[in-house]
Design goal:
The chain has 312 residues and is of the alpha+beta class. It contains 9 helices and 16 strands. It has 2 domains: 18-74 and 90-166 and 271-305, no CATH class; 180-268. Helix content is 27%, strand content 27%. The strands form 4 sheets. Strands 3, 4, 7, 13, 14 and 15 form a 6-stranded mixed sheet that branches. A 6-stranded mixed sheet has the order 8-16-12-9-11-10, sandwiched between helices. Helix 2 crosses helix 4. 27% of the residues are buried.
Length: 312
């Protein structure tokens, strides 16, 4: 989105000028790499997603980046006598844990029809609404891929199959990691109380106190119904579904695979986005639409594999 100066001296967004008929489609600038300030603004909006803001988000200046973990494990304070060097055990922390992000390119194709622009030509909030719309689409797909991505080869029979193969998401990384405990759960038979206990019992004691459950919203509601079932003939009422289990927070999202539960510190989930974001656009005469292509590179990781548990 570019601000232009008209012959009258008035300044406005070029797509607004197009909607008002003040410029022609061929007068639009096609765009390209976003300026640093524009890219930073877009990334800040994406990282403000309700789920992403709870995890570790990283702005990558290169396509690969080592991620050192300093703030996940507890009880790292030690005492080393003066005159002595710390042992390897004393130094456990940043060197013991970590992962590498490898950003892969993805694209978002979006369009604004000429009818839409004309209908909103006098809308003073048009720019903000368009930015929010793009951000909602990007942010929603990022979180969806983080939960459901199973590969990174971008192959598949259809668009939906290709989508989940753009990147490996957090749950798939846990499935493949040798040092991430995997436990079998059957909530339909055993109930959610027993299932969540099984998952929590398999966790590393060093991070159990700071870990949260991550599960599908419908599954969390089923757990709430289970704990709110009649007890000794009296119905236990709750104004909202229970979102805790034995003192541990239950983080819910409708895009988490149903029947799957992760238990880990939220900051153990990592999302990296390269700061170089390209935005191309062109007005398509036959389709009468302003078409955008957002080109960016991102990756997902679990910082410390052994600090996560996956129940399925």
């Amino acid at each position: 989105m570019s601000v232009i100066t008209l012959k009258s001296g008035q300044r406005m967004q070029d797509f607004v000028a197009l909607a008002k008929g003040l410029i022609e489609p061929e007068d639009l600038r096609n765009g390209g790499g976003l300026k640093a300030q524009e890219a930073a603004k877009l990334i800040t909006m994406l990282f403000a997603d309700p789920f992403l803001k709870k995890i570790t988000t990283i702005r990558m200046s290169r396509l690969t980046r080592d991620v050192d973990v300093m703030d996940i494990a507890r009880r790292q304070l030690v005492r080393v006598p003066q005159g002595k060097e710390p042992s390897l055990d004393d130094l456990t922390g940043a060197d013991e844990f970590g992962c590498k992000l490898t950003a892969l390119d993805v694209q978002l194709f979006a369009k604004l029809t000429l009818d839409f622009l004309r209908e909103n030509k006098d809308n003073p909030h048009l720019q903000k609404e368009i930015e929010a719309g793009f951000n909602t689409r990007l942010g929603g797909d990022i979180v969806d891929l983080g939960f459901n991505g199973v590969a990174d080869d971008a192959t598949g029979a259809d668009r939906a199959a290709k989508f989940i193969r753009l990147n490996k998401g957090w749950f798939q990384i846990m499935r493949e990691a040798d040092n991430t405990p995997k436990v079998n759960i059957d909530p339909a038979t055993d109930g959610w109380i027993a299932s969540l206990k099984t998952v929590m019992d398999a966790s590393d004691p060093r991070v159990r106190a700071t870990s949260s459950f991550i599960m599908n919203e419908a599954d969390a509601d089923a757990y709430a119904e289970e704990i709110n079932a009649p007890v000794t003939g009296h119905e236990v009422q709750s104004n909202s579904p229970a979102r805790r289990f034995r003192g541990k927070t239950i983080e819910t999202h409708p895009l988490v695979p149903e029947g799957s539960v992760a238990f880990t510190p939220m900051k153990n989930l990592v999302y990296g986005l390269h700061v170089d974001i390209r935005r191309d656009r062109a007005y398509h005469q036959l389709r009468r639409a302003l078409e955008y292509v957002f080109d960016m590179a991102n990756d997902f990781e679990v910082a410390v594999k052994q600090f996560a548990v996956l129940g399925e």
